[in-house]
Amino acid sequence: MYQCLLFDLDGTLLDSRDAVIDAVARTAERFAPGVFSRDDLLKRFGESLDDFLAAAAGETYDREAVRKSYAAYVREHHDRHVRLFPCVREGLERLKAAGYRMAVVTNKQREFAVAGLELAGLVEFFEVVVTIDDVSRGKPSAEPVQQALRLLQMRPEQALMIGDSRYDVLAAAGAGVKSAVLEWYGAEEWTYAVPDLRFANFQTFAEEMLAVRALGGNGARWHE
Description:
The protein is of the alpha/beta class. The chain is built from nine helices and six strands.
């Protein structure tokens, strides 16, 4: 039975995809101009900034300069990154009351992840926050998920990773953890990275997890 729920942040709890894409697009255009269209960036949403820029510019860019430029833009527009999806707070309250332990596992920098959780009023729900600053490689590496499990002292089979992108699914699979995706932006075709569960929104996800808890099992159903 699932004992803990590991949540991605952007595009999963926070409706921040467009704001994140804007920040990445501005940074990419400065350090790797003309390489990616906005559609390309949407397809890579959820990837760590380092992995994205390594693909865009190889090893020719100044990593520290890139991070500073990206961080400056995000700070300036941070309020756009802190809009909750519907029913997230209510759902988290019910999941915590039901006894689930919860953590955030994000490719976001700690400064912005914690600030976003604080502004959204979600800090109280999470025992652990694992960010890109806490690991050597972000998702799709399994390391962030494994780090969360270590901090929670949980085994892979006791956890469910909830995200919105293939990077979340791949990270979970690499750590031996089941995955669920919230398809807030519409149903997607999942090919080489296939989630175990799919949900259209947080309300249906929370209802399913509460039902699983009540039944004492982990036989969650497939939702589209």
